[in-house]
Amino acid sequence: MTFDYKGYAGYYLDIDLTKGKIHKQEMEKEWARLYLGGTGVAAKILWDRTGLETNPLGPENVLVVGTGPLTGVMFSPSGRMMFASKSPLTGVWAESHVGGFFGPEMKYCGFDFVIFTGRSPKPVYLFMQDGKAELRDASHLWGKETDVTTDMIREEHKDPSIETAVIGPAGENQVLYSSVIVDYYRAAGRTGLGTIMGSKNLKGLAASGSLGLEAYDMEKYLEANKVEMEKLRDPLWKDSLASLRKYGTTDLVAIINEIGRLPTKNHWTGYYELADDIGPEIIANKYRIAQEACHGCVVGCKYIITVKDGDYATGPIGGPEYETLMAFGSNCMNNNVESIFHMGKRCDLLGMDTISCGKTIGFAMDLWEHGIITSKDTDGLDLSWGNIESMVKLVDMIAKQQGFGKILAQGTRKAAEIIGGDAWKYAIHVKGLEASGQDPRAHQSIGLTYATNVRGADHLRSISCLEELGYPEITAKRFGEEKADAILEIMSPTHKGELVKDMEDFYALADSAVICKYAVMWPPVYYMDTFTNVIAPLTGMDEWADMRFVRRAAERISHLRRAFNHRLGITRKEENLPPRLLKDPMPTGPSKGGLPDLDMMLDEYYDYRGCERETGFPKRNKLLELGLDDVAADLDTRGMLSKN
Ligand code: SF4
Do 86 and 57 fall into the same domain? Predict the structure, then answer.
């Protein structure tokens, strides 16, 4: 049997780890038509199969590993894949995407999705090859770091081209922000997906495929693809793309510091005076030795570094992204870039999210400065700002759940609960997820983005680059001439509800398709019309050529993920910001005095989203319009549907 729609591999695996049973199923037609792939399909699966009672670390939790129709096909970029579940860190929606080559390889094995439930009685890994899959013993891999795990799997199969997605000791030890590592140094980092794999005794996935993918109408698809590629050549973003090729995301250290948005000293301010020491020029000139690209990407932002000598000498490793430079750098007042390379590398080998790890250490340093913790609490470690020796020790202590590291392994929200007193005031998170590298006091729409993001305080579900990069023609085209000026004003809350709602919907499609956000969304090269151009000729789903259908699909996915969180208790009260970011004006730097007007933006956002202002709950008519009748009925029984 072949799946009706092209571009997909056509099958998914439904795996009960407790019983060791693998069920190979044909892809569901309605999943593709209504939710496209990636995050959309994951939302549908997780809505249907999990709920309030699901313990994120219990065998009943469901882990979805997914790709999209644009994964592994001729498209730039096409190397992306995703993981989704109920998060052990936040207790709500968990999702993380990663580039590289594993996603395409999984599709070449013949599988669009893998769904894991249960808990294996002993460590296993999933091996997929050309339409077949088996669970293999991973007892000998348990306890191994991610690079050794990948090497051993390749060795075992005598195939150095096998692609892997594996966890390290942090995931096995149930650090709540453990990541999944792909191709040695690419991470699905956020929300603890690696922790869930560890709880299931699942060490990793390995794929070696040679099956092809087809387009429904190859001639038309190639034509549509050419149109999208031409967009990348527009002189409008020539400089941005050149910078991304030269510096990777490290150039954001300089750009964001200049705006006054670089989290510094656990968000005491947004400007770091020593930012040049951890910024793009020094890294490019002194350490970078090569540049790499994910599957199919014509940009290639990933860079490789070495450190020749000193305490942190290393052979070639993946250089840290902007977020890692921020988390272990400015956030902890650490201007020693080689130590940041080292901690980033340790996080990749241990399988730990660099953002949550660095932000949690910064939180502990803040507590230290304010006398809330002392050396009696920290196993004798001095946690003064920028104490590199203590930071480096803590990274491994967290991964191994040793001493004070055991408390920090819980993330800032839970660590603050354990420490007690005023510690919660220093925990910079939303819904339990440590804030990524943007301070919302310097950029109004980021405040709203953090508050409404279904996975918590980060920028990857809706950030708009329009305000900081300033594309008036594009902004006017998307939102109309009248609103464009206010939308482009970075410190104005006006029209930001509409902007964030629109970006959330666009990102929902990108994360369902599944494509990378760098290069094609920052700068704003692609938009909704990318999907109306390429999906129909690729898949044969004609409705996807219709913009109204595409926008409805985007809204459907956004609402379903929000409903997933409502069912777990999320209301307007939780769509909030930590007190420091909401009430203490930015004290120094270019954005001095800035504060987000969250209430105003939330009201507008709920209006555009089709939700009630008081609670944030969806309106019945909106859900019915999107075909989410069962979701409306479920939320209604729980009192989580708008009364209006
Ligand atoms: S822009 Fe960078 S992260 Fe995105 S696909 Fe290309 S190389 Fe990978």
Answer: yes
Whether 231 maps to a domain, the answer reads no
**557 CB under 6 A from ligand 1?**
no
Task: State the total domains in the chain.
Answer: 3
Mark whether 21 and 107 lie in a shared domain. Answer: yes
Q: What is the CATH number of the domain that holds 555?
A: 1.10.599.10
Tell me how far the alpha carbon of residue 97 lies from the centroid of ligand 1, in angstroms.
Answer: 12
- Is residue 235 assigned to a domain? no
pLDDT-derived band at 465 (thresholds 50, 70, 90) equals: confident
632 and 551 within one domain:
yes
Is residue 448 in contact with ligand 1, taking CB distance under 6 Å? no
Q: With a 6 A CB cut-off, is 182 part of the ligand 1 pocket?
A: no
Mapping DSSP to helix (H, G, I), strand (E, B) and coil, where does residue 463 land?
Answer: coil
Ligand 1 proximity of 240 Cβ (cutoff 6 Å): no
Residue 209 alpha carbon to ligand 1 centre in Å: 22
CATH code for the domain in which residue 26 is found: 3.60.9.10
Per-residue model confidence (pLDDT) at position 208: 97
Strands 11-16 and 113-117: parallel
Domain limits at 567? 440-637
Whole-number Å distance, alpha carbon 472 to ligand 1 midpoint, is 26
Average pLDDT of the residues in 375-404: 98
Mutate which of 185, 245, 291, 301 to test ligand 1's pocket (most atoms within 8 Å of Cβ)? 301
Cα 255 to ligand 1 centroid, rounded to whole Å: 19
| Residue 483 counted as domain residue | yes
DSSP string, 470-531: --HHHHHHHH-HHHHHHHH-TT--TTHHHHHHHHHHHHHHHHHHT--SBTTTBS----HHHH
pLDDT at 7 over 80: yes
Q: For ligand 1, what atom is nearest to the CA of residue 292? A: 7
- To which residue do tokens 């609490």 refer? 377
Nearest atom in ligand 1 to the alpha carbon of residue 295 is 5
Give the model confidence (pLDDT) of 486-509 as tens digits. 999 999 999 999 999 999 999 999
CATH code of the domain containing 353: 1.10.569.10
Residue 297 Cβ < 6 Å to ligand 1? yes
CB atoms within 10 A of CB 38: 33
Does 273 have pLDDT greater than 60?
A: yes
Is the CB of 81 inside a 6 Å radius of any atom of ligand 1? no
How far apart are the CA of 113 and the centre of ligand 1, in A?
22
pLDDT for the residue 577:
98
Q: Which atom of ligand 1 is nearest to the CA of 248?
A: 2
The secondary structure of 608-622, three-state, reads HHCECCCCCCECHHH
User: Cα(123)–Cα(152) distance, rounded to whole angstroms?
Assistant: 15
Residues 404 and 445 both lie in one domain? no
Cβ-based burial of 384 (10 A; exposed 0-12, middle 13-18, buried ≥19): exposed
Q: Ligand 1 centre and the CA of 264: distance in Å?
A: 27
Rounded CA separation 503/505 (Å): 5
DSSP letters spanning 295-347: TT-SS--EEEEEE-SSTT-EEEEEPPPHHHHHHHTGGGT---HHHHHHHHHHH
Residue pair 464/496 in contact by the 8 Å Cβ criterion: no
Q: How far is the CA of 226 from the centre of ligand 1 (A)?
A: 19
**Is the Cβ–Cβ distance between 409 and 356 less than 8 Å?**
no
Is the residue at 461 inside a domain?
yes
